[in-house]
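REQUEST FORM: STRUCTURE PREDICTION
Request ID: SP-0412
Submitted by: Lab K.M.
Chain count: 1
Length (residues): 214
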Amino acid sequence: MDHVTLTPQMMLNAYTNGVFPMSDSRDDPDLYWVDPTDRGIFPLDGFHISKSLAKTIRLERFSIRFNTDFDAIVEGCADRPETWINDTIFDLYRQLHAMKFCHSLEVYEEDALVGGVYGLTIGTAFFGESMFSRRTDASKVALAYMVARLRATGFTLFDTQFITPHLASLGAIEIPRAKYHGLLGQALEHRADIEALPAPLTPQDVLQVSGQIS
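STATUS: Completed
RESULT:
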């Protein structure tokens, strides 16, 4: 792919057509577009919270911030032996963040960044890109708060791209490509603002979005 001509607008156009970019590794300069046969999503009314995770949320062990350190979140997501986030992808997401399309949710333990999640928003769709955790439950807490924020601000679709056992344990499901494209089309017909949270989320707000506490 010609990286010189790849722009943030091209990225947005790709997402609205149901495809997203990946690279084979951090050092691979090439990108390719992906449109999975089966797509992972989080039903926004079906997030699963275990009793232990509910306890962690109630105790407010972590503090939650939003859009305070986007670069650090992407760096945290890429800080692993194998990653699909190369320099080109990182730079494009950074530009989309400046354009208010990409957002990050940060999880802190005291002054230390210990986890988080980031993704891209168009219409009422949130395209979850990646997450990381440096403490037990930090990424789960990040996802729980992100789901609560999406519900509170009018989003209808949380795209996880693929399914992993970790995501499935939290309620993510896999749907056929055609069904995903139908949901995406509906989400693109409306608007939502992920930053327009009426009030800071409380632990109770987050626990109320759970479709299952077990």
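NOTES: The longest helix spans residues 138-152.
Reviewed by: T.R.
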